Amino acid sequence: MVRIAAVGDLHIKGEPPADLVAAITDLDETADLLVVAGDITNGGRLIEAEAAAELLALSRLPILAVMGNHDRRCLRRKAFYSILARAGVDMLDGEIRVMSFGSETVGFAGIGGSGGGFWPDAGPDAVHSRALQRLRVKARLEATRLDQALQSLESHEVDHTVVITHFAPTINTLGVEPEAKYWMLGNIELGRTIDRFPVDLVLHGHAHLGNPIGRTPNGVLVRNVAQSVTGGVVVHELDRESAATATWPAFERSA
User: Fold this and answer.
1) Which range marks the domain in which residue 71 is found?
2) Which residues contact 133 (CB under 8 A, 6 or more apart)?
3) CB neighbour list of residue 146: distance below 8 Å, 6 or more residues apart
4) Contact residues for 96 (Cβ-Cβ < 8 A; gap 6+)
5) Strand runs (DSSP E) across the chain, as ranges?
6) Helix ranges restricted to H, 58-110
7) Which CATH number do you get for residue 67?
């Protein structure tokens, strides 16, 4: 059994709220790894990264994370990464990590992703504009980088494959987000890429009004872990029988 704690959209501005501190403190007692699905900070400022680093270090776990759109506002990306690295946060941007937990080996592929929309396969089309066309080009580029990462994982023997992204790969987890915003929340190219590989679980954030569980068109399990959706940190259990046998709030399980 591998226990993956996950949360997204912390939007740290200064001192973190007490309930989030409580959820992350000593998380190593109930999980093996912490995944942060982007928007660690609210504005990408280094002082926010320092506050986030102090918070995440409380978990006492190895941490994998991706950049969210708010984090990308940072003009000093190298310094941003360095601050988080000192707290044990390993930022993935088109890279993979292969990690062993007892007898189970998990391959992780991480990408921030982008908007771009889900038309024509799902969801409404957005207003056509040059900006939207550029965004769709970005979506294809990000999907290509994810494709390359997942291809590289094929050379490793893993029991599970997990994709971490900030933007949604499917409309299934967008919940009550306005349809007019779908093009901002994710893109279909990510979902198409995921469906070409034996992925067991996708963790994303960004859709604050979304719902926690969905699937890609080919049935890959997708979980929206934005803290506004889940209420905080959630733990996903992986075993050989199922990609995610159970999901529960970390603070409930540890109580």
Assistant:
1) 2-254
2) none
3) 94, 109, 111, 113, 163, 165, 190, 193, 194
4) 107, 108, 109, 110, 149, 150, 152, 153, 156
5) 2-7, 33-36, 63-65, 89-91, 96-101, 104-111, 160-165, 201-204, 213-215, 221-224, 234-239, 242-249
6) 77-85
7) 3.60.21.10
3-state secondary structure of 214: strand
- Mean pLDDT on 24-44: 95
- The answer to whether residue 243 scores a pLDDT higher than 50 is no
- CA distances for 122 relative to 116, 171, 172, 182, 246, angstroms: 12, 7, 10, 10, 28
| pTM over the 0.85 mark | yes
Average pLDDT, the chain: 90
d(CA 192, CA 42): 30
At 7, the amino acid letter reads V
Over residues 74-87, the pLDDT tens digits come to: 999 999 999 999 99
* Whole-number pLDDT of residue 126: 62
- 112-124 pLDDT, tens per residue? 999 988 877 776 6
What is the tally of structural domains in the chain? 1
Q: Determine the 3-state secondary structure of 127 from DSSP.
A: coil
